[in-house]
């Protein structure tokens, strides 16, 4: 009996060791790769020999439209392109166009629009705020210019939701004229850069500055020696809003949760074995 119990305990120890190393190993791996869309099981049997060969030598599969390429071709969007790439929103759009049927709408401020910003406006932003700024220019649905006549304001942008403080914007339209209001900036659509049935890109004459960045945190603390009281009040009033860091990317949260759940299962298995081992003693 003793021997038996000893065996069970050493088994248990080995098992727990295994658990702790395997769960320790996981967090290192999880954040590295964002969850890849599961391969469609229906598609693969249809053309098994075909697709790998085609992917290998032909670099022109009819994938989603490439936003940065379209803008490059159109010309006059160098600053926007740089921001789209740096914030990885370009990839985000590509991924979403591939996955969803809803499509996408991008308001593309021209280089002239960016240069008319107060100098230092972009530099004053954190990386997180730059991402929000670019996401604020994208709607997670496809809109034709005519569609804007029937939208209900405020519209949800990719940066958040329709609630105040969640980066909404308003679009008003009459005929083919479309205006966008952020509460801080009134911009006008001055042309269509691209439109198919899932992606539209509209040229806008101003950078859409979201209230949620630029009122909560005024751009460039100018070396003004006079400390104005009203500005300070705004600062403190707006600061809770500006703490958007709580929203982490869903993939990371998901994998953490998954490994936590797994850990929980492992622990309960371990406990059951422990109980079994003791009942043998
Ligand atoms: C689009 O999705 C398919 C399958 O879902 C995938 O094989 C392909 O790599 C994706 N393309 C891009 C550009 O994300
Ligand atoms: C759009 O804004 C311009 C001024 O910038 C204004 O003249 C026009 O009436 C507005 N149109 C709509 C549909 O709001
Ligand atoms: C946007 O539209 C909503 C609903 O019409 C309105 O309550 C809100 O004040 C508008 N916001 C801006 C910034 O124009
Ligand atoms: C934007 O337009 C609205 C009226 O459509 C006006 O009340 C507001 O002052 C304008 N805002 C700016 C920043 O020009």
SSE blueprint and pairings:
Blueprint: H1 2-29, H2 43-46, H3 50-57, H4 67-74, H5 78-86, H6 89-99, E1 104-109, H7 111-115, H8 127-135, E2 138-139, E3 170-174, E4 177-181, E5 186-195, E6 199-204, H9 211-214, H10 229-242, H11 250-280
The structure holds 2-acetamido-2-deoxy-beta-D-glucopyranose (NAG) (4 copies).
Description:
This protein is α+β, with helices and mostly antiparallel strands and 281 residues long. 47% of the residues lie in helices and 12% in strands. It is built from 11 helices and 6 strands. It has helices at residues 2-29, 43-46, 50-57, 67-74, 78-86, 89-99, 111-115, 127-135, 211-214, 229-242, 250-280, and strands spanning 104-109, 138-139, 170-174, 177-181, 186-195, 199-204. A 6-stranded mixed beta sheet has the order 2-1-6-5-4-3. A hairpin with a 3-residue loop joins strand 5 and strand 6. It is globular and about 40 Å long. Mean pLDDT is 70; it is low at 11-17, 19-56, 228-262 and 273-278. Belongs to the fasciclin-like AGP family. This is FAS1 domain-containing protein. Residues 219-228 have a biased composition (Pro residues).
């Amino acid at each position: 009996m003793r021997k038996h119990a000893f065996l069970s305990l050493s088994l248990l120890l080995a098992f727990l060791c295994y658990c702790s190393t395997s769960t320790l190993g996981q967090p290192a791996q999880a954040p590295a790769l964002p969850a890849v869309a599961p391969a469609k099981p229906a598609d693969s049997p249809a053309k098994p020999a075909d697709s790998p060969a085609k992917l290998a030598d032909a670099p022109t599969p009819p994938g989603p439209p490439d936003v940065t390429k379209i803008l490059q071709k159109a010309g006059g969007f160098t600053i926007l392109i740089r921001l789209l790439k740096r914030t990885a929103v370009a990839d985000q759009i590509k991924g979403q166009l591939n996955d969803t049927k809803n499509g996408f709408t991008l308001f593309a401020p021209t280089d002239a629009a960016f240069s008319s910003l107060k100098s230092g406006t972009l530099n004053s932003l954190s990386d997180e705020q730059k991402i929000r700024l670019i996401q604020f220019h994208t709607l997670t649905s496809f809109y034709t210019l005519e569609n804007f006549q029937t939208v209900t304001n405020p519209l949800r942008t990719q940066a958040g939701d329709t609630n105040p403080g969640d980066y909404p914007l308003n679009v008003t339209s009459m005929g083919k004229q479309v205006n966008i209001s952020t509460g801080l900036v009134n911009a006008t659509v001055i042309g269509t850069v691209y439109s198919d049935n899932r992606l539209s890109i509209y040229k806008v004459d101003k950078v859409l500055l979201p209230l949620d960045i630029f009122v909560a945190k005024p751009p460039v603390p100018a070396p003004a020696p006079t400390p104005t009281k009203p500005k300070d009040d705004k600062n403190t009033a707006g600061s809770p809003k500006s703490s958007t860091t709580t929203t982490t990317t869903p993939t990371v949260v998901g994998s953490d949760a998954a490994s936590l759940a797994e850990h929980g299962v492992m622990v309960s298995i371990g406990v059951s074995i422990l109980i079994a081992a003791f009942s043998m003693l």
